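Q: Sequence in, structure out?
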Amino acid sequence: MIFIPTKLKGAFIIEPEKRSDERGFFARTYCAEEFKKHGLSTAMPQSNMSLSVYKNTIRGMHYQVDGAEEAKLIRCTQGSILDVIIDIRKNSDTYCKYIAVELTQQNYRMLYVPEGFAHGFLTLTDNVEVSYQVSQFYTPGKEKGIRWNDPLFAIDWQITNPIVSEKDASHPNYIK
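A: Exactly. Output:
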């Protein structure tokens, strides 16, 4: 696996190293030893997936608090997304900064999101499936959200009128 550091400390784009032949290819998508070498969380006790039927759907920006913070390994297994993460770790050099990464079924890229980040994505195609490995079990009552269009972050979603759930649309702006 190829670990590409991002401008946000602790966040990585991960590309699989493909071993190809006439049948196709084989690649690892997770290796605890390699994650450990890069200082990343190796405990991933839960896997989740989502399906978004329509292009231009935004899911997010979600994060967890009070000991339930999750590291996430995100991969788009069908379609394509613009995956967005915001560093909301108050003691971080990149506090309140964000990155956006295109993850597609064709590029096989993954995004490693450390604990203490908000996460969301925009679907760039119809019928998008996203797979998440997470470092914590889901804890009801510990999930929070930031409004997808919070002016503090001014995220360039590349769209003006997305499909957003009522729950996600009601998230407050972030208070620094």
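The domain at 44-169 is CATH 2.60.120.10 (Jelly Rolls).
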